[in-house]
Amino acid sequence: MVDKSLSRTGASLLIDALQKNGINNLYGVVGIPITDLARLAELRGMKYYGFRREDSAVNAAAAAGFLTKKPGVAMTVSAPGFLNGLTALAQATKNCFPLIMISGSSERHIIDLSQGDYEGLDQYNVAKPFCKKAYRVDRAQDVGLAVARAIRTAVSGRPGGVYLDLPADTIAQLNEDLGEKNMGVYKLVDPAPLQEPSDAAIARAVDIIKQAKKPLIILGKGAAYDRTEKQIQELIDKTNIPFLPMSMAKGLVPDDSKHSAAAARSLSLKNADVVILVGARLNWMLSYGSAPQFNPNAKFIQLDIEPTQFDSAQKISAPLQGDLTSILNKLVPALTATGYKVPSDWTEAIAQDTAKNDAKFAKRIQAGETNPKFGYYGAIEPINEYFQDHPDTYLVSEGANTLDIGRDMIGMKLPRHRLDTGTWGVMGVGMGYAIATAVETGKHVVVLAGDSAFGFDGMDVETICRYKLPITVVVINNGGIYNGIDNVVPDQLGPTTLDPTGRYDLIAKAFGGDNYYVTNYQEMKDTFAKAVGSGRPSLINVQIDPSMGKESGHIGNLNPTLNLKPLEEAEQEKLDKE
């Protein structure tokens, strides 16, 4: 006979509150004090996905939030497990992905007196700077309210991460408030209310756009998250305004659209006189909107739900505050009613620059197919070909050169089908993002990772195999961080050197997945479609030449350089004398 008191425990109330609000998947790593909580979740009909490290589990929950617009939920153990998950919690907040990270924690009276509890840490206060909000639940009767607050905080306004601290005592504690029939558990009413901009703000933006000779739309991942593709496509089709998608906004408008300025990025940014930011921020990825990358006389129109984002780096001439869907639902008809069309000389200039750059790029790709030194272009082109024929496949990418070149090469036709390292450029997201994407969408997922990036979370290939998920992991192995030929001191391995002969594919074999090893374009072309088409967990080790790859990929300017040449020459002279 089932003990009825179990339904009054903090653990049971937590599960009831999540399910009541449509959250049925949990990602985590179990141990003291949450093991039975995870078991109970499964017994109550939830799906639990167990990972090998907490950061991967929290990354998975973050990706689930981005894909579903409901907060993904991750669970970790106390102290070290909590700290492992903290980086992913912070990143989710920076990326504006709705997430709830729940960690078991030590008893308050022991922590507050610093008495030295097992894995003792004041997790609640540690988490505060790294998320939108942190909550601690000291009474079982408050669990339902805490979940409600966490969900609303995660999804309302600018989405982000929330930390929920669950002391061990609260997990097993009984709700003694017998006067409440639902024991404090309820479904939220309108957790993320729509926010419309004022008519005056819309009119101001329309007036600026109407005067634009060289307008440009920049699409950020916020536009993808808010499912604005219909409005964006209507706006572009009716006005001919060219667009530039940030990496996770690719596919909002198909990359092969004639209005895309992606291949003419430098020209479009330097010359645009009006820049319309839709769910994009003027941070380091957009050079803060500054010259010489941007026209110093450009006027900025920004669509964002967070008012403090306006004027963060440049003067915003027309701030439009609200959720992006509501803004576009007013802005698009207001602008198209004026009959505004982009001057043809601007679209022709972008088209000419695009054609010129596409031709150069095509030569690189063609050369990559036959280059004796097998490299990135030959390795990635078969992936692009597959995606053009199978657009409803999801892509997760991380690395330096692998990420940068793959972003340029792989065209996306559907929104929210590309996830990558995001605002912070953090590595180690690949397995977590891919696992959640496969779970939440039921579609096949391709992970494209450099060998260095794969090392951060590669053990979760076992998780992929354990749950038999349709994920193909492609590791581009050049034997190093950036490349594998760094050897500044003859008798030492260079700081960026990894193992160029490593057989990463055998990790999949060890756990029952399919493994492939390729060393040239034709092998990759033959292998990739086969691996993805199988629907099985698989890993392809793509062995490229160790000399392939440049320092920091496309952002080498962010990596300070020192004049090491005199020291290197001295080392070589020393070697020559020996």
UniProtKB/TrEMBL annotation:
Residues 9-123 form the Thiamine pyrophosphate enzyme N-terminal TPP-binding domain. Gene3D superfamilies: 3.40.50.970, TPP-binding domain (3.40.50.1220). The keyword Cytoplasm does not apply. Residues 410-542 form the Thiamine pyrophosphate enzyme TPP-binding domain. One of its GO terms (molecular function) is thiamine pyrophosphate binding. CDD domains: TPP_BZL_OCoD_HPCL, TPP_PYR_POX_like. This is Oxalyl-CoA decarboxylase.
